[in-house]
Specification:
Elements: H1 2-30, H2 60-84, H3 92-97, H4 104-121, H5 133-143, H6 146-159, E1 164-170, E2 176-182, E3 197-203, H7 210-213, H8 217-224, H9 230-243
């Protein structure tokens, strides 16, 4: 009996320390990314294309409201929250790394600010197709082939109950994985079971698609693949590996 407890003790300790190790590795890597400079007062980056540039896949009206109302709202509310909490000097990624310690308004609006900031960059007119080079090889190694990856990511996006996001991220060992998060959470947050550096995201809040697609989230997800900016995803993947010293 004693022996069983000793074995169990070591197994639990190893699992816990392994998960803490991954968490620290992601935090340390995030501090080497350019976006580690993000801290209050936060500003939206200009949209890198016109509101109607992603037609017919993402319609102009949705893009305008999404960028100028929703993303602007998260940004303003984040600025108010960090000012009120004395956290305007704290890098956003350091807040994400211990997000359970901070007011829920910082979790919601910090995620809302950052997730949309990178989402706009991951889209482009005449995008889509398939990734190439090191990213294509990493997708093949993690998922078997591109189709299997696309299907897993789409499933994570369509299966997210209520509002949230689906992600492709790099874990602490440099391996790609798919996950989905609720609300405005993201894979950099300490509250996520599996943490990583995000390289591709899809917003599956109804505000991202309802005007054009109504309840047909699956049709929106199919359209999303036509406007993915794979150069941006490949660039983020390369930066993540560098930050992880891989
Ligand atoms: Mn949104």
């Amino acid at each position: 009996m004693n022996k069983l407890f000793t074995v169990l003790f070591w197994v639990v300790l190893m699992v816990l320390s392994n998960s803490l190790f991954s968490q620290n590795a992601i935090k340390e890597a995030s501090q080497k990314l350019n976006e580690y400079q993000l801290k209050g007062q936060y500003q939206q980056a200009p949209l890198p294309y016109a509101f109607n540039a992603l037609e017919p896949y993402l319609d102009a009206e949705t893009m305008e409201i999404h960028y100028s109302k929703h993303h602007a709202g998260y940004t303003n509310n984040l600025n108010k929250s960090v000012s009120a909490s004395g956290l305007a000097e704290m890098p956003l990624f350091d807040l994400f790394a211990e997000i359970e310690k901070y007011p829920v308004a910082i979790r919601n609006n910090g995620g809302g600010f950052y997730n949309h900031l990178i989402f706009w960059q991951m889209l482009k007119p005449n995008g889509g197709g398939e990734p190439t080079g090191a990213l294509a090889a990493a997708i093949k190694s993690a998922f078997g082939d591109y189709t299997a990856f696309q299907s897993e990511f789409s499933k994570a996006a369509s299966g997210r109950f209520g509002s949230g996001w689906a992600w492709l991220s790099v874990d602490s060992a440099g391996k790609l994985f798919v996950s989905s998060t609720a609300n405005q959470d993201n894979p950099l947050m300490s509250t996520e079971l599996q943490q990583g550096i995000p390289v591709l995201a899809i917003d599956v809040w109804e505000h991202a698609y309802y005007l054009k697609y109504q309840n047909k989230r699956g049709d929106y997800i199919s359209s999303f693949w036509r406007v993915v900016n794979w150069d941006e995803v490949a660039n983020r993947y390369a930066q993540a590996l560098k930050a992880l010293n891989l």
